[in-house]
Structure formats: structure tokens, C-alpha cells
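Field reference: sequence -> structure
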Amino acid sequence: MRLRDTPTVEVTARLTCSPERAWALVADIELPTRADGELQRAEWLDGATEVAVGARFRGHNASAQGEWHTEPEIVEVEDGRRWVWRVGPADAPISLWGFEVDADGDRALVRQWAKVGTGRSPLSDFIDQHPDTEAAILDHRMSVWRDSMTANLAVLEQLAG
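Structure field:
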């Protein structure tokens, strides 16, 4: 695995609720704060109050490596179905993240995914310092993302039940 390949992680769950209920849950930017993961707190910026293209929010994160915040921008919304946010500048995003909801009979199929971008970040800086272990570094980072997303979907299953 190489950074230049912009790796992607995706997790999926079938929820025992309607797609409309699942959408209401995934469109809450505070959802991941209820699960184990790096995101500790999230708040809307610039007067935004809901998922909409151009809306921004601040995410406060923490891990063993320290604390940091990001100010993602929502770059795509298909109301009731999909929303995507970008971390970093439009011309060189650090990462793209998204939630998707599809009908599965009378239930909802929910996906969360994240893709490493081409922008400079602490991750790319660390890889530059340790190029011989790039694959292991990326594998670790993708597993952190996967674990967090899996925890998010477990919270969704509890809330949807």
C-alpha cells in the first residue's frame, strides 16, 4: 500500500430502521463522538446547522499522538442518501469522508468510508521520514480509521434499534 494510491477504507452495516431514520442519524456530525475513536467533539461553524454543501464544522480529535482539530467542508450532499466532507484544501485534500444510506427492503444499509487524499499532512510527513515502512504506517492508519468507523456503525445499530 502506498500513499500515492490514496487508499480507501469502508465499513457497512444493515440497520433495523428505515432509510429515513438512518439518514437522520448519519447526518448528525456529533454521531462519531458517541463511539470509540479519535473524534472527541464536533461543532458547526459559520452559522451552519445541518448537512449542506459548503457547510463547515470543527472536529476536535485526540489520540496517543496528541490533540488536534480539523475544519472540514461538506462537498457533496444527496439528501437522504449521501454526504461527503473534505479535510484540507480543495486542490489537495488530506482526506475525504462520507456516509451513504440505501434502502434494503424495509431496513437501511449504511456505509461509512474514508479515502486518503493527496494533500500534505502529519501522516505524509511521517511517511517521508520513514519511507521504508510506508506500507506498515498506512496499514496502521487505515486500521485506526476502520476501527473508528466500525464503532460508529455499532452506535448507529444501538440508536436505530
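Note: Residues 134-160 form the longest helix (27 residues).
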